[in-house]
Fold:
Amino acid sequence: MDALMSRLDALILNPDLAPLLSLVKGARNGVVYGSKVRFPHALVMIFLFRSGTFREKVKLVLQATRQHARNLATFAMVYKGSMILLRNLNPTGTRKEGRYDSFFAGLMGGYVVFGRNNGSVSQQIVIYVFARVMLALAKLAIQPDMHPFSSLITPETRTQITNNAWPAFASLSWAMVMYIFRWYPDTLASSLRSSMVYIYSDSDHWDSFRNFLIHNK
Structure:
């Protein structure tokens, strides 16, 4: 056994195999992370808000977990594989990473894994990423020397924007989602809509103490 482990260690430490092995490790980490993130979330959401038998709910939990893990694993392989390809296609012949390689590799992975899959799990992942990107871009927008108008933002203005950006973002986000839920609920994702119905609509109806405080309906 020790001899086998030594051979495996020598194999995975071979620098010539590092690019290929990084794909395997990326897929492995995608599966593990996707499973750890999705399983508890799906377990709570499905058992609380979905109807059906226990067996059906367990099946839905496992399906969501598998989909999330597969998406992240596949994206990791496509992204890392694209990065390797772009490095080897570098016109300078240096095989170094280009400034925008990560952008184009992410574009490829985003299309292959998420762009052609409009399922609820894929939508949730993309929307999560989109929200984080918007917050990051908002922070970058006021950093010095980031764009032609950066010189117009004084340090005092930058501080004021930083201090007030999150309250404004949070307030407007909730203002918009509540307005949409009130007048155009069908446009919201089903999971978000069901949770909002439970909190904001079902709380307007009861006919006894039992379904006022103990049970929802």
